[in-house]
Amino acid sequence: MDAEAAQEAAAQADAGFLWDFWYPAARSTEIRGQKLVTAMLLEVPLVLGRTSEGKVFAMRDSCPHRGIPLSYGRLDGKVVECCYHGWRFDACSGQCVEIPSLSSQDKLKVERIFAGHYPCEERDGYVWVYMNSPGTRLPETIPAAPALAVFGDKYKVTHLSCELPSHIDHGIIGLMDPAHGPFVHQSWFWRKRGSIHEKAKQFEPIPNGFRMSPHSPSTNSAPYQLLKKITGEPVTTTIDFVLPNIRTEIDQSGKMWFSSRATVTPVRRDICRIDFVAAWNLFFLPVWIFRIFGKIFLRQDQETMIQQAEGLKHNPRLMLIDDADRPAKWYFALKANLIESRRTGAPMVHPMDGPVTLRWRS
Fold it and tell me: Is 51 helix (H, G, I), strand (E, B) or coil?
């Protein structure tokens, strides 16, 4: 790793990001034809596009010559051309294939020049980018990008998103917080403040995360009770959180099911984005109705995080309590233990010894 790359890596580490994971960069529908699309993940500017064969690609949005964004250039279906001096790069590898200014006397080996390039896959309507740590080589094998769990061939699906003016850590512990529902999400169709009661849920460790074990959902949540009435069978809910940023929920009642995934995507150290996708086979739930309520939920979370950001500007002392904040404590421990494991090469230590029951009121 050269000095410049080492300096960049140190700055990124200070931002509290987790590298060497897949992150959703954009919706698949945004990338059409020969259009170049910009995105930012973990403070790395990206340019995304689609080759003439339909394959998506992701490059660092910076020409290695003079640093001008490659997104100002053009894509001919296979090659990205810089608008400044016409340097051309293979879209799928980042390798330079032509420097128009070179004469027959020049000995520069063009093929040894690369623009920054990242593995890229499409899943569930998203373009995922594998963000390896700055200045490091990609591992020989990388896992597949995350896929939403579905339980049949016929189902409805929808996507929602919103931006939060927060560091990813605040976005994530807000996502998993079990106690804010009756206050932030008060509504006739969900929960009322007066419905608060004590709950006990079992959690268990899973690789790189934890699971709220299969359970009957809250009696003060109207949608779950409606599902139970329609099917005449119990509703079970399973909720997982897995590093770096993924919360999944699966609700099942008889043959009916609802599956969702929310990711808190780090854009910059002061901005993150919730990317939410859901699929279901509930015949009584049209997509347009779900989107209305889903947008209300996300807007409520967004407004709360905007308000929280006002207070966080003054660097107040914060606290986490048991048991309602125990998942947040697990998240911070998982993150720290993963970083330490990568540093030392030792196996990662999970902060949970085994199943545990947490109790809180919400």
Answer: coil
One-letter amino acid of 147? A
Quick one: pLDDT band at residue 2, thresholds 50, 70, 90? low
Model pTM? 0.91
| DSSP one-letter string for 154-181 | --EEEEEEEEESS-HHHHHHHHH-SSSH
Residue 84 contacts by C-beta under 8 Å, 6 or more apart in sequence? 63, 65, 66, 68
DSSP 8-state class, residue 233: S
**Cβ contacts of 362 within 8 Å, gap of 6 or more:** 178, 179, 180, 181, 182, 196, 197, 199, 218, 324
Domains and CATH numbers, the chain: 10-131 (2.102.10.10), 156-361 (3.90.380.10)
Q: What is the pLDDT of residues 323-353, one digit of tens each?
A: 899 999 999 999 999 999 999 999 999 999 9
Q: Which two tokens stand for residue 314?
A: 């003054």
Share of the chain above pLDDT 90, in %: 72
Torsion, Cα 172 121 25 137, to 10 degrees, reads 80
Distance between CA atoms of residues 250 and 258, nearest Å: 6
Tell me the per-residue pLDDT of 59-93, one tens digit each, with 9 for 90 and over: 999 999 999 999 999 999 999 999 999 999 999 99
CB 65 within 8 A of CB 80: no
Distances (CA, A) of 84 to 66, 68, 70, 106, 111: 8, 7, 9, 20, 19
17: helix, coil or strand? coil
**Token digits for 268?**
């910059």
DSSP 276-318: EEEEE--TT--HHHHHHHHHHHHHHHHHHHHHHHHHHTT----
pLDDT tens-digit series, residues 142-192:
999 999 999 999 999 999 999 999 999 999 998 888 888 778 776 655 555
Asked if 159 and 276 count as a contact pair (C-beta separation under 8 A), the reply is: yes
CA distance 186 to 196: 11
**Structure tokens belonging to residue 10:** 């140190």
